[in-house]
Amino acid sequence: MEFIEDEKKMGYYVDKFNLRNYFREDFFSQYQKYMTIARFSKGEYLYRQKENIQYLYFFIEGKIKVSSVLSNGKRQALYYYKKFGILGDLELFNRSNPYTIIQAEKDSYCIALSLAYTKHLLYNDPVFLRNMAELLAEKLYHSSSNFSLNIYCSLENRLCAYLISSAEKKRDETGAETLVFQEKLSETAEILGTSYRHLHRTLKYLKEEELIEKCSNGYRIINLEAIKQLSSEQFI
Predict the structure, then answer these.
(1) C-alpha–C-alpha distance, residues 194 and 206, integer Å
(2) How far is it, in rounded angstroms, from Cα 113 to Cα 68?
(3) What does the pLDDT average to over 26-43?
(4) CB of 34 within 8 A of CB of 113?
(5) 118 with 31: CB under 8 angstroms?
(6) Residue 51 has pLDDT above 50, yes or no
(7) Using CA atoms, how far apart are residues 116 and 101, in angstroms rounded to an integer?
(8) Which of 102, 122, 179, 193 has the lowest CB atom count within 10 Å?
(9) Residues 6 or more apart in contact with residue 121 via CB below 8 angstroms
(10) Which of 227, 190, 225 lies closest to 205, judged by CA?
(11) What values do phi and psi take at 231, rounded to 5?
(12) Average pLDDT in the 99-122 region?
C-alpha cells in the first residue's frame, strides 16, 4: 500500500463522493485529519483473513475482489467492487477478526480512514452509525437474495439476473446504444456458484435462443425483455 498526500485530490474525492454526508458535520474536520489516499497494486491485500483492521476504506477507483476461504482451503468470490463503496464496515463492528479476504484485482485507489485515531468518534457518531446500519442491511439483503437464488433457481435464471446487473451500456458499430456483458467468465462462475463448463453451456444456450450474441469484448444482450423475463422467474 502506498499513501498519496495530495490535498487537492483529496478535496476532489470528498466532494465527488459526498463523504461529508456519511458523518456528523461537526465531526468531519476531525476525521479528515486522518484521511489519506491509498493506492493498492494489483494482487495486494486490503484485508487478510484473521488480521486486525487498521483502516476503514472508501473505494474510489479500480477493482476490488471480496472472497471467503472455504474449509477445504479454496476461495469463494463473493463480490467485486468496481464503483464507490465502503470496505471494513462489517469488520468494524465485529468483535472477531475479518472472515473475508479483500484484494485488489488491478491497481486501485481508496480513501483510508485511520481507525487508531477515529474509532471512538465513529462509535459516537449517530450519522455514521445510521449510514452503516443502512449499508449493512442492504448487504444482508443482497447476501440473503443470492443465497436463495443459488439454492432454488436454475443457473439460467441466475445468469440472466447477473447479466442485467453487470452489463454496461456501450455503443455498437452503428453508434446505437447496447448492453454488453464484459465480466471474466471464471469470476462469473465463482459468483454464481457453478463450474466454468456449466456456465459456458448456459451461455451457449442463451446464444442459440438468440437472447445474447458474442462480440469482440464480451456478450451483447440482443433480447433484453426475454432476459428480464427469465431473471424475474426467480420471484415466481
Answers:
(1) 17
(2) 24
(3) 95
(4) yes
(5) yes
(6) yes
(7) 21
(8) 193
(9) 27, 30, 31
(10) 227
(11) -70, -30
(12) 92
Quickly list DSSP for 30-47.
HHHTTEEEEEE-TT-EEE
Q: Rounded to an integer, what is the distance from CA 162 to the centroid of its chain?
A: 13
HSE value, Cβ hemisphere, 13 Å, CA-based, for 99: 9
DSSP assignment letter at 6 = -
**Grid coordinates representing 24?**
456528523
Q: 152: pLDDT confidence band, cut at 50, 70 and 90?
A: low
Query: How crowded is residue 30: how many other Cβ atoms within 10 Å of its Cβ?
Result: 14
Bridge partners, 218 (sequence order): 215
Q: Which three cell numbers stand for residue 110?
A: 481508496
Point out which residues pair with 145 in neighbouring strands. Answer: none
Q: Is pLDDT larger for residue 36 or for residue 75?
A: 36
- The percent of the chain in helix, strand and coil, each rounded to the nearest 5, is 45, 30, 25
